[in-house]
Design brief:
- By secondary structure, the chain is α+β, with helices and mostly antiparallel strands.
- The protein has two domains: 119 residues, 2-Layer Sandwich (Phosphorylase Kinase, domain 1), CATH 3.30.200; 129 residues, Transferase(Phosphotransferase), domain 1 (Orthogonal Bundle).
- It contains nine helices and twelve strands.
- Strands 1, 2, 5, 6, 7, 8 and 9 form a seven-stranded antiparallel sheet that branches. Strands 10-11-12 form a three-stranded antiparallel sheet.
- The longest helix has 22 residues.
- It is elongated, with a radius of gyration of 20 Å.
- The relative contact order is 0.10.
Length: 261
Amino acid sequence: MKEWNIVPLYKLQELPYANVLCYPRFELKESEKRICELERLGVTAIEFTGGKNVSTVRVLGKGCVGIVVLAHTETGKAALKIRRTDADRKGMQHEAEMLKKANMLGVGPRLLRFTQNFLLMDFIEGKLLPEWLVSLKSENNPIKTRVSSVLYELLGQCWRMDKAGLDHGELSHAPKHIIVDAQDIPHILDFETASINRKPSNLTSLCQYLFISSSIAKENIETLGRINRNILIKALRVYKQSFSKENFEKILDICGLRREA
């Protein structure tokens, strides 16, 4: 990484970095307040890298609520979510609370700290799920075993959230919210629209994406073996009525993901 991509806090009021700190409308007083918040979080610098652009610099992610960047802290690297100045919420507390609940279930990047405008989390380095699936085609390792392991773990995470009453809310858009790390461990990201006040649909939403109606559903079926979509849809309807272990394991069986104890 080139050193000029690593910017210390005192330089964040300079362009083009200030456009990220206070996106999309820069205000000097707001930037000063946010730099003080970063100091309290233990952030020492921001590394501008990633697959998205804000102004003329690179970032890890860009959404309706926040910009995600790579932060350098007193204890190492972390993912930092910056609240947009035009976000439809006044702070990051709700997302922090939802992520904390997910963490208790073994789901999501570990929440480190948060303030009104920032959410600091473990930095998960890896590939988004569709990119990870494509990358397997160029490798000689058994694809079915690796895909089965990742999808088994993902569905398990969804079941645990369903049982706990935590709905992610965006898993029908799984390509943007699931990353697979170098150890083939999947991580569900971005809990900004998560809720404990609506009926969860994590497993049903993810199965819809993985096996029924997305561009990668056909590839997954070809990799894992024949999956009867009609039977899966019926099983998902039963599961929606009761998030029981029996109903969950029935779905694993249909998808060819069941593991013996």
